[in-house]
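Researcher: Here's the sequence for the chain we discussed earlier.
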Amino acid sequence: MKGDKIFVDTNILIYAYDISAGVKHVTAVRILSELWESGRGVLSTQVLQEFFVSVTRKIPNPINEQHAINIVRDFLRWEIVVNDGDSILEAASLVSRYRFSFWDCLIIQAALKSGCNILLSEDLSDSQVIESLQIRNPF
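Model: Thanks. This is the structure I predict for it:
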């Protein structure tokens, strides 16, 4: 894992800011701290959009919108994959090949596009390999 670029799915970010998430909160905070230190974390526009909506509206103790904006602004210092038209088409192609949801395929596509070797997510099967990308569930 040392030196690998690591794509972070939305759920990891959400748990890091959802204090009611218990052990998952602690794990997510540790993961993000390590990625901040190493500079190996990668996100996409989709992840940041989902994060903002979730932490301001969907978690048990939502954070205020200005605080969420500041968090997103901080994460913009990471490598960010922009989901463009080609990304949408490639994600749709992944749906046909792997039978995942479109939204999961858009995450997978962004991780592949950025050259990540690892995708951290609890939404996909742990240890599954998709092309050059290994899925890891840190929980």
